[in-house]
Structures are given as C-alpha cells and as structure tokens.
Amino acid sequence: MKKVVIVDVTASCNGCGGPDKAICVKICPANILEVRNNHPSNEKAKGIVHVLNDSACLQCYACERLCPVNAIFINPPEFNVVSELILRLKGTI
User: Fold this and answer.
1) How far is CA 22 from the centre of its chain?
2) What are phi and psi of 36, to 5 degrees?
3) pTM greater than the 0.70 cutoff
4) Which CATH architecture has domain 6-89?
5) Residue 15 in contact with residue 22, Cβ under 8 Å?
C-alpha cells in the first residue's frame, strides 16, 4: 500500500510570479499543484501554490527540489530510485 505523503507549501511561496510561471505546477507529473490567488479583489496578487490531492503525489520530489524559494516540503522525505529516474527522464537532474 502506498504511503500518503504530505506536500507542505510554506508561507514563503510566492507562486513564482503567477499561475503560468509556477515551476512546481509546470513540473509536477501528477498535476496535483495549482496557483490560487488568495486575494481575488487584487488582480495583481500573484497567489500561492495549493495542493489538490496529497494522495496522488508520485513522490518524485521535483517540486521540492526545484522551488526557487524552498517553500515546498514533502513528508516523509524518502527519496528512491524511481523518483530519481523520473527526474532524470524529465531532464531536471
């Protein structure tokens, strides 16, 4: 049985400048991340990343490793061979 991981996005997340720029959202092979504007009345707000489904996380750790502000943490932090292979195939390591 697959362990359910917790993808934790900290307050330092800035959404990388908006929904179309967030590195973690672009790189996630499971498509479980999205940028939401927490201030809908402010169109200039960049928003922060939200996790749509922790249980669908593939534990590839791409979002955690590539976040430019170190705002994403995946628990438990167990990196495995399959995760590394996924990152290598995507050309991120």
Assistant:
1) 9
2) -120, 140
3) no
4) 2-Layer Sandwich (3.30)
5) yes
